[in-house]
C-alpha cells in the first residue's frame, strides 16, 4: 500500500498572522542559500563601519551628502539602503529632494565593503527634523545607524525695556 501524499506546504506553515507563511519560506530560502557557504568558514554579521557626516551642521539651502559604509560576508545577498522616518527615501521624497546614490562594492577578504550615499539637493528644515537611518541587511542579520543633526540654537532675542 502506498504512503499518502504529503500535505501541501501551505497547510503545514504557521497561520493566524498575515505574511507568516511568506516569512517562513523566505527564512528557509535564505538558510538554504547560505548554509553551504558556512561549512568552511565562520561568517560575520553585516555591520555598518562608517557613517560619514560633515563636521559642520548642515546649512539650509545647501547641497549635502551623507555616506554609509558597511561590511558583509555575503555580498550577493546583502542590501544597503536608507530610510527616512522608517520609509524608503524615494517614497518619502517623491520630489527627488533627497535621493540614494548607487551601491558601490569593494572586495574585502572573503566579503565586501558596501558604500551608499544619501544626497540632499537643497537641505531644508524638514530634513533637519527627519530621522534618516542607514540599514545593512543580509540573511545573517541587520545593522542600522541613525543620522542626528543638532538643530541650530535660536538667535538670542534682545529685550528692550521701556
UniProtKB/TrEMBL annotation:
Pfam families hit by this protein: YLDV-IL18BP-like
Record bears the keyword Glycosyltransferase: no
Signal peptide: 1-42
Keywords: Signal
Presence of the UniProt keyword S-adenosyl-L-methionine in the record: no
InterPro entries per the UniProt record, alphabetical: Ig-like_dom (IPR007110), Ig-like_dom_sf (IPR036179), Ig-like_fold (IPR013783), IL18BP (IPR039681), IL18BP-like_dom (IPR055139)
GO molecular function: interleukin-18 binding
Taxonomy, superkingdom: Eukaryota
The Ig-like domain, residue ranges: 46-136
Name this protein carries in UniProt: Ig-like domain-containing protein
Amino acid at each position: 500500500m502506498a504512503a499518502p501524499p504529503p500535505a501541501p506546504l501551505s497547510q503545514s506553515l504557521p497561520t493566524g498572522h498575515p505574511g507568516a507563511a511568506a516569512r517562513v519560506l523566505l527564512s528557509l530560502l535564505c538558510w538554504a542559500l547560505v548554509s553551504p557557504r558556512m561549512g568552511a568558514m565562520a561568517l560575520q554579521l553585516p555591520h555598518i563601519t562608517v557613517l560619514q557626516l560633515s563636521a559642520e551642521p548642515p546649512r539650509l539651502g545647501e547641497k549635502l551628502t551623507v555616506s554609509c559604509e558597511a561590511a558583509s560576508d555575503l555580498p550577493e545577498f546583502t542590501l544597503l539602503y536608507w530610510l527616512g522616518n522608517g520609509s524608503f527615501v524615494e517614497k518619502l521624497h517623491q520630489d527627488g529632494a533627497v535621493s540614494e546614490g548607487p551601491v558601490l562594492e569593494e572586495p574585502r577578504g572573503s566579503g565586501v565593503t558596501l558604500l551608499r550615499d544619501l544626497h540632499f539637493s537643497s537641505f531644508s528644515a524638514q530634513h533637519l527634523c527627519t530621522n534618516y537611518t542607514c540599514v545593512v541587511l543580509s540573511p545573517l542579520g541587520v545593522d542600522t545607524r541613525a543620522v542626528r543633526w543638532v538643530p541650530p540654537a535660536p538667535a538670542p532675542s534682545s529685550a528692550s525695556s521701556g
